[in-house]
Write a structure and sequence with these properties.
The complex is a heterodimer of chains A (89) and B (86). Chain A is mostly beta strands and 89 residues long. Chain A has one domain: EutN/Ccml (OB fold (Dihydrolipoamide Acetyltransferase, E2P)), CATH 2.40.50.220. Chain A has a five-stranded antiparallel β-sheet. In chain A, a hairpin with a 5-residue loop joins strand 3 and strand 4. The longest helix of chain A has 5 residues. The two termini of chain A are 20 Å apart. The model of chain A has no long low-confidence stretch (mean pLDDT 90). Chain B is mainly β. Chain B has a single domain, classed as OB fold (Dihydrolipoamide Acetyltransferase, E2P) (Beta Barrel). Helix content of chain B is 14%, strand content 36%. The model of chain B has no long low-confidence stretch (mean pLDDT 90). Classes of the chains: A mainly beta (89), B mainly beta (86). At the A-B interface, strand 2 and strand 4 of A face strand 4, helix 1 and strand 5 of B.
C-alpha cells in the first residue's frame, strides 16, 4: 500500500460507464513529485494523509471485481507527521 | 490512475485481433513522455484525461479480453497546465 496526501477532487463529467459516479481525487504519493488519481470510497478531505492500494486489489477495494480502478483509497491515517517520518522516527 | 493530455490520433490498420477496432490515442504525461492509450469515449487533441492502467485497463475497455494496459477513463472538466506540471 502507498502513503499519499490528498490534493483535491477531480471533476470528469464525460467518463466511461464503468467508473459510475464515484469520487475521484488527485493524490500525491509520499516521496514522489508526480500526481495520481485515486478512487475514494472513504470520503477524504484535501490535505488528508491516506493509504491507497494499487494493482488488482484496487478493483476489489472499490467495491467489485469489475470496477476499473488501479488506485483506490482504503483508509485515512489518523496522525501522520511527515517530517518525523522522514527523519526515521 | 494518471492524468494525461491527448496529443493526437493513432492509426494502426494491421493489429492484434484482440485490439479489435478500438480507437487509439497518443497521450503525454506531465514529464512529456508519450504513451498510447485506448479511447472508448472519443477525446480530442488537447483534452486532459484520466487514464487507467494495468489490469483495470482491460475492464475499462469494456471487455476483459481486449489487450490494453492503458485506457482513457474520463475527460477532466477543468485542469490547467501549471497544476499538471507542478
Amino acid at each position: 500500500m502507498k502513503i499519499c496526501q490528498v490534493e483535491g477532487t477531480l471533476v470528469a463529467t464525460a467518463r466511461i460507464s464503468g467508473l459510475q459516479n464515484r469520487r475521484l481525487l488527485v493524490v500525491k504519493e509520499r516521496g514522489s513529485s508526480g500526481k495520481q488519481v485515486a478512487v475514494d470510497p472513504v470520503g477524504c478531505k484535501p490535505g488528508d494523509w491516506v493509504i491507497a492500494v494499487g494493482s488488482s486489489a484496487a478493483r476489489d477495494a472499490a467495491g467489485s471485481k469489475d470496477y476499473p480502478s488501479d488506485l483506490t483509497i482504503v483508509g485515512i491515517i489518523d496522525y501522520w507527521d511527515d517530517a518525523a517520518a522522514k527523519a526515521g522516527a | 490512475m494518471q492524468i494525461h493530455r491527448v496529443v493526437r490520433d493513432l492509426v494502426t490498420s494491421k493489429r492484434n485481433f484482440w485490439l479489435a477496432s478500438k480507437s487509439l490515442r497518443v497521450v503525454e504525461d506531465a514529464g512529456g513522455n508519450l504513451e498510447v492509450a485506448l479511447d472508448p469515449i472519443g477525446t480530442k487533441p488537447g483534452d486532459y484525461v484520466v487514464t487507467i492502467g494495468i489490469s483495470a485497463a482491460r475492464i475499462a475497455a469494456g471487455n476483459p479480453k481486449i489487450t490494453t494496459d492503458l485506457t482513457i477513463g474520463g475527460i477532466i472538466d477543468h485542469w490547467d497546465e501549471n497544476r499538471w506540471r507542478n
